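Consider the following input, taken from an annotated entry for Protein kinase domain-containing protein (Aldrovandia affinis).
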Amino acid sequence: MPPVLIGNSGLKSWSVIGSGGFGQVYKAKSIDLGIDVAIKLLHQDDSSSLLKEAEMMLQGGNPYVLRLLGEYQGVPSGSSGPPQRGLVMEFMERGSVESLLQKLGGPPPWPLAFRLCHQVALGMNYLHQLSPSCCTLTSSPPTCCWTMGSVSSSQILAWPSLSAL
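Applying the prediction step yields:
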């Protein structure tokens, strides 16, 4: 089943929340769903890797991996240029692991660190169990990677039960 197509008319209040080698991530309000969403747009039009990632995300769900809500096609608010394609995912309301560590100003207390590690392991185990597996372990340095490229925990993991904030 292909992802739902979401265009500019279904989104408002765009803001950039992150960027990296792959592209930019925006926060916007979905008019139809009535919730904040994250929109991942690639720097280059690499539709094949975008569709592979969408297919993997549509295989099911896990509370520790972000859900795909649809595919974006359009020109982001405040931008100019040709239409872009991207993924529309649930927005991590409480932020990423990286933002949590910044708020704490140092390492988390052991109970929170253990819970974070446990939840990361649950999310990564789920990704590894997909068919075909989209999570492989590299040897040097030990890193878990998507088959479509390296992904950090701040990009893929949601923390629904985190109550430390």
